[in-house]
Amino acid sequence: VFMVLSLLSIVYGALRCNILAIRIKYDDYDVHVKPAAYLCIFLWRSFEIATRVTVLVLFGSVLRIWVFLVVLLNFLGFCLYPWVLFWLSKSPFPENIEKELSRVGTTIVLCLLTFLYAGINMFCWSAAQVKLSDPDLISKSQNWYRMTVYYIVRLMENAFLLLMWYIYRTDFYLYVCAPMLVLQLLIGYCMGIFFMLVFYQFCHPCKKLFSSSITEAL
């Protein structure tokens, strides 16, 4: 019961972050979110987060040391990615975050922001993409390419972790139909991607402002 309540709480938080990110990106427009959009986001985040957590738990139950390496690589990769883009853009260091902050304080704030960004992206696609070269610190454009790469790589990673669990599973899972569980988790993650596509293609409140639809981008 507590696990279900915790999952619902996290999914609700992800849903609210999605809506907030849309309102920030399109603050010049009057955004009206329809019930169908709420439903798509809820299903999208539910399947995505639940399957991701389950995959990590299964993998960690048989390869306890290696799961720390997987989490660490994910965290460091997503944490350093905004800084790499910022370095490649050759933009000046952000100075207008807060007037009372010194350069060291600004650096600490940006590091905490990228830590939060990395923590979210380990489990699901972040609603707002960090862009340190932007005055608002978030990307206002819709990057279909980055989203596509994220979900392809994440699906491959989940499949690999499930394969490792299947190979090294212990007698604890003797009465579990392992192939069926692997198939269900992979289908569950694909269902999350499906509802994400439905949301951006049909239910996004600002889809008319996209330069191209997600199907055209794909």
From TrEMBL:
Keywords: Membrane, Transmembrane, Transmembrane helix. The keyword Membrane applies. It is a multi-pass membrane protein. The chain crosses the membrane at residues 6-24, 65-88, 108-128, 148-168, 180-202. One of its GO terms (cellular component) is plasma membrane. InterPro entries: XK-rel (IPR018629), XK-related_adapter (IPR051773). It is found in: Membrane. Belongs to the XK family. This is XK-related protein.
